[in-house]
Design a protein that fits this description.
CATH class of the largest domain: Alpha Beta
Structural class: alpha/beta
CATH superfamily of the largest domain: CoaB-like
Distance between the termini: 28 Å
Number of helices: 13
Helix content: 25-40%
Number of strands: 19
């Protein structure tokens, strides 16, 4: 990566994850970026401004009314200077202010004034992250083009385990780099991506599903968007933040996915099926909630769902590039190659979901990109980095 001379404004808010932002500044400086830091008053309770001043080699702005280093209107100058405006950590408070146009301190005032791309790295308690108000604020911001990296899942400072952990500095740097340096090599192309899990209803309150979070499909959608593609994202059940700047088509069941795909795919140039559709559904759907039967076993009869990837492969038109995913637990390459042929794919992304750092719900992945001409092993890396590798390989296939 090279960020030489790029102007980055970093907003640091009052959360325990503020210490990670010091590492973020250090990494950005190492890559040659010029970093200007704005801190909220609460942030200074966690990390001293002197830390960021030393790491960034720039004055740190905290107070809206402090004397500027140079004669200018400081919040306007920083807003105009930024090539990308990063907020890390982004607390529920700053997200709420941004969503509703509140400008009552230096950070909220400056981000409101900027026309630069805004990247937020949320960090908060799981309950705050899942709160309806927070999720609605995120939806508003995404519609306005604000981009998000994370949050991750895991043990939080409060002792809870769940979503809300700020992404690691390396992941945030990757997202910044993607915003600033994304090639536009997909301009003029229509890309359809599927993400998340399907749900097969058992009764009005229960369903069969899987652990897919949608993170891999979302990373692909963001990468394709940043590279200039017109992106359609067909999404099932997901837990990750939905990307901004793409067309969203929601589905629930595998049958829904099949009908939507057959309707949408004829207009697409590239189709990447990263969703995890259910392989089976209940033979019968109960119209009422199934009750316990006084200790008797409940026997479910299941039937296969439609093979969506196979149907899309059989309906493909000349000039389309089809990519599938194979999430396996054994005989990875053999199973993936069989799917490549059966479903008439140009490439399949195979990953062993039992490996640490790979599979459902993680922020990283380990994969093998398999085509009819060979295999490309990809090491443990972020899902965004893998998404870029997949798009690179797709472009190579389209040039053959």
């Amino acid at each position: 990566m090279d960020l030489s001379g790029r102007e980055i404004v970093l907003g640091v808010t009052g959360g325990i994850a503020a210490y990670k932002s010091a590492d973020l500044v250090s990494r950005l400086r190492h890559l040659g970026a010029r970093v200007s830091v704005i801190m909220t008053r609460n942030a200074t309770e966690f990390v001293a401004p002197l830390t960021f001043q030393t790491l960034s080699a720039n004055p740190v702005t905290v107070d809206t009314f402090q004397s500027p280093e140079y004669w200018n209107v400081e919040h306007v100058a920083l807003a105009q200077r930024a090539e990308v405006f990063v907020i890390a950590p982004a607390t529920a408070n700053i997200l709420a202010k941004m969503a509703h146009g509140i400008a009552d301190d230096m950070l909220s005032t400056t981000v409101l004034a900027t026309s630069a791309p805004v990247l937020a790295a949320p960090a908060m308690n799981t309950g705050m992250w899942q709160a309806k108000a927070t999720q609605e604020n995120i939806r508003i911001l995404q519609e306005r083009g604000v981009r998000f990296v994370g949050p991750g899942n895991g043990l939080l400072a409060c002792g809870d385990v769940g979503a809300g952990r700020m992404s690691e500095p390396a992941e945030i740097v990757e997202a910044i780099h993607a915003i600033l340096n994304a090639p536009k090599d997909l301009s003029g192309l229509k890309v359809l991506i599927t993400a998340g899990a399907t749900r097969e209803r058992l009764d009005p309150v229960r369903f069969l599903t899987n652990d897919s979070s949608g993170k891999m499909g979302f990373a692909l959608a963001e990468a394709a968007r940043d590279r200039g593609a017109e992106v359609t994202l067909i999404k099932g059940a997901t837990t990750a933040a939905v990307p901004a700047g793409v067309r969203i088509v929601p589905v629930e069941s595998t049958e829904d996915l099949l009908h939507t795909m057959l309707a949408e795919t004829p207009a697409q140039d590239i189709i990447i099926q990263a969703a995890a559709p259910a392989d089976y559904r209940p033979e019968k759907l109960s119209p009422v909630k199934i009750k316990k039967q006084q200790g008797e076993e409940l026997v479910l009869r299941l039937k296969e769902t439609p093979d969506v990837a196979k149907a899309v492969g059989e309906a493909r038109r000349p000039g389309q590039t089809l990519v599938g995913f194979a999430a396996e637990t054994d005989h990875l390459n053999e199973n993936a190659q069989a799917k490549l042929e059966k479903k008439k794919l140009d490439m399949i992304v195979a990953n062993d979901v039992t490996r640490p750092g790979a599979g459902f719900g993680t922020d990283t992945n380990i994969a093998t990109l398999i085509t009819r001409n060979g295999m490309l092993e990809r090491p443990l890396q972020s899902k965004r980095a893998l998404a870029e590798d997949i798009l690179d390989q797709i472009l190579k296939l389209r040039k053959v």
